[in-house]
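Apologies for my clumsy wording, but could you write out the amino acids of a protein and the tokens describing how it folds?
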Amino acid sequence: MDDTSQTVGPSRLTRQMKVTYWVALSLIAAMATASYWLLDQKLSEHRANRELLMLVGTQGTLSQRIVFLANQVQLTRPEARPEMLAALSASITDFERNYDKLLDLSGVEDASVQPRDRAMFEQVLFAQPFHLDHFTTELAARARRFVAASEQEAGMDVMASGYSPRFELAHLDATVANTTLLAYTELRERLQVLINTRLGDMLTVHRALYVLTLLLLGAVAIFIFRPMANAIGRKTSELIEARNSMAFLAAHDGLTGLRNRAFLIDHFDTQISGAKRRGERIAVLQIDLDGFKQINDTIGHAAGDYVLATTAQRMRETSRASDMCVRLGGDEFVIVLTGAGRTEDIGMVAKRVLDRIGEPMDFEGVTIQCAASAGIAVYPVDADNASDLLVHADLALYNAKKSATGSFRFFSDELRRELDYRKMLERDMRSAIADRSFEVYFQPQVSLLNGAVAGIEALVRWPHPERGMISPGEFIPIAEKTGLMAEIGRIVMDKAIETAAEWHHNGIQFGRLAVNASGSELREVDFARFLFSTLEKHGLPPQKLSLEIVESVILDDEKTGIAGKLRLIRAAGVHLELDDFGTGYASLSHVNPNEIDRLKIDRRFVQKINTNGDNSAIVKAITELARGLGISIIAEGAETEEELSSLLKIGCEQVQGYSIAFPMPIDQARSWLAQRSPKKPVIRLAASNVA
């Protein structure tokens, strides 16, 4: 999964969760609003009906009170009648006001009231047999006439009510009161039935809303929250798996599943402390596959990965569960044997592991034979800490690889002395880098056709103040291993370009300056910038410089991106040469005239070419290949006249070797080149007698 998909996945899930949340919230809010509105409407209707019910009951009571008070007025003494008439008038007023309110609340004159309710009120108020409206009006009118007549009879001021004060028109008897009471009782009963019906409807609606709410919550849970919970669960599982994978990869190698270097560094000292408490020995087996690079280059990286994974599996099979199997990187492995026992036991384990690793492997029908070598260091004999044990095992491994394929070696006193020497050499090398005390020697390259100088190669030399001149074969491997080669290379390149620029400005012909560029130098981010700035600083044209690279640098380009850097350098005019051609495993696709200007045949094919038919055939094939591609060619290591003659006969015209000239310091190289530079014609002016 790439970074884009890893970013889009959580982002899309977050959007889905937000949308789901708001949809669910909206549905629940809508349901709650609808429930509230319906219930509020039903409750409002219920309150109105209850108020009507109470009003109807009050009207029935008032109708009886009016008749009762009217009778009491007639039976009361004259002096007490005004008080009774006032009470009667108040009851009549309440009776009339309540009836108006009843008409208003019943809505018999309002078209918005439900037809069923309006019909019920109209039937009681205006239809037979009740005619409540008639009897109510009639009762109130008769009561008003009775009050007016009673006030006139008692000599009181008659209130202006509009009713005639005549007793014959104000006949209030039990018939009127009972008829009115009967009508109000009927209305009350019908209202009670209506209220009960509405209450049942409200309960039905309430139950329906409750069920719908449950159904909505169930639907939200099933169709919204369950998918969201499942998605969250999946993402949580993925995060847990990713965390576990990260934790696994932090301590394991992704390809082989073995412990990695970081885990070894973190836990090795703990194991040593435990072995110290128990009085046990620990053995470190550092294993390296022999010829693994050839497998990658000839069969492919897929085959190389298969070999690494199979090797790891075989290491696990041949070691104990308590042992730690580690992949350091590349084709380097480590087995830490706890409770190692005697030296003979450790040797038996090492042999068993190497024999198992060396068994043939079958990859897609191709049988791969890949042996391994091992170096062994033992705690506490060889060292008492993890770092030194690994260094000593690595040194023993280096010694094993020099002796025989598929062998193992224990760290020894001799190797200890060698290690001490290497440490001292590394320390002195760092001082030499700081002092820029590395010197540049030059070895000419000439044409066999006319003896002209075709070029000159810059070679590094180290004059040690105490040990004299140290061979490049002695300090360069240490410089490569300790990461100092890039700094040494820059010193050599700067000094060589400075010298070549001086020769160029002084007219000394040297062809092209050839400088070796190691992989560690080319992998430096600012290498191209350093090269161009050095050429510009000293004033050497780019066309006067060649960079010599080895085949392994090209083969490693898939991981380092060096090819793009080399194309940039070549586009600026600098020539590129493939050094030690024939010793690596570069395919013909890398021998491209658009990328390489010259091939340099390795010295092992040039030596004894006059007597070795195989070497002669190889050099001839390389020469014809280069000629067909339009690439120039040069042979190095020619040391005798016979070898030079054989090279010329094959068609290899440019050579470099001891038979031509040994590597020389700057002054000697300058003299050698000056002697062979073409002499400029001397122009002499003729004497003249003209004044």
Summary: The CA atoms of residues 461 and 471 lie 7 Å apart. Residues 1-8 have pLDDT under 50 and may be disordered. The radius of gyration is 57 Å.
